Amino acid sequence: MARTSDRALDRQDDGELVDLLRHLEELKCAAEALQGRAALALDRSVRAEEQRRGLPEERQGRGVAAQVALARRESPARGRHHLGLAKVLPAELPHTTEAFRRGRISEWRATLVARETGGLSREDRERVDAELAADPDRLESMGDRELVATAQRLSYRLDPQSAVVRRRRGESERRVSLRPAPDLMSQLSALLPVKDGVAVVATLSREADSLIATGDGRGRGQIMADTLVDRVLGRTPLAWSQPTTPAASAQDRGTLEPGPDVGVDDVDVLLHVVVTDDVLLGTASGSAHLDGYGPIPGDLARELVGERTWVRRLYVRPGAGHLVAADSRARRFPRRLAQLVRLRDQRCRTPWCDAPIRTTDHIRAVADGGPTSLSNGQGLCEACNYAKEAPGFTARARPGPRHTTQTTTPTGHRYVSVAPPLLEGTDASAPPARSP
């Protein structure tokens, strides 16, 4: 397929191109199904070998999902999902499995069926599968929402109590997360029980209606966002500029302009900003790195430092892009050293994971003579820290332009991770995530 030229495609008529798109989609879906079968075969093989070696059953197969994730260039969480789906489909959803293998549905739609029937007994799950997927033409014609709604209706009819159990489980998983968004914005998300989520939005909406009625120049979305921030941080609302002309665009409305008489309550928040001294002093252009967000322009870094928000500045060696090394004799990473590791690595160091760092790990274990140092430390999420303890996994630091680690899986596949450049202009060529 890689050798197919644009000229060859240009010779096809429109109908042939549409047919090609459909055939490729079916091939892609069937390939995803085959990936699942390969993952399941790997799991069986690993467990059989570990059983032969006398490993307790509860410890067998611990590293399989991590290997699946690395092979598919995805996070460990996705690896666990792929392996779990591969186990469930043939065992409890045979009709969905057959449609998936034939390329009639995608891995995502197979996931939706598995997800919406997850609280049912095996017998009820098979009944839903038969009603939903026995007719592959009907299954293929469904959109995501229709598929989910149909699976939910069938599940509620067969086992109403399962909805209660799932709701309780869902409420126990409530959380808040933050991820970067374009234009130096951030996306704050909260997974809440439905009654709480609806109540929060209704409260913010009422506040927006009230302020708009008094002539506030901001848009509804702006007011709701500002009110959320004000109430969470417990700060006094800031003054907002009003459009100077009736023709002012919606984008111009609601510009933040706190005057000198506007007080902002002190908020006990600590920000970590990694910056060179030239950028901090304004004698050179460039960017800084805000922990928990990513790159920010130099002017914003200087603005943060100048405000009353607590900022801890960490300096980068110019031209190198890495933090100053530090060592410790402790078996556990001291707090400041752990902060340096986290600021250097930014996200979990396992290739393609991208999860927040939850633990500072010794690359070479202390029991094997590994020091508690910046060079022997790496930031990992909880899942990756757990996965690396599975039999056959090894890790070591290796030379590189920046801090570089290599993980070797039980099959001998090697994956390289290089700490990201903290600031622009300090990047050097990095090896691929997988090396021979």
From TrEMBL:
Pfam family, one: HNH
Bias (Low complexity) ranges: 402-414
UniProt-recorded name of the protein: HNH endonuclease
UniProt cross-references to InterPro entries, sorted A to Z: DUF222, HNH, HNH_nuc
Domain HNH nuclease: 336-386
Coiled coil start-end: 17-44
Record's keyword annotation contains DNA-binding: no
Keyword Nuclease applies: yes
Biased composition (Polar residues): 239-248
Gene Ontology MF annotations: endonuclease activity; nucleic acid binding; zinc ion binding
Region (Disordered) location: 239-259, 394-415
Keywords, alphabetical: Coiled coil, Endonuclease, Hydrolase, Nuclease
Family: Belongs to the Rv1128c/1148c/1588c/1702c/1945/3466 family.
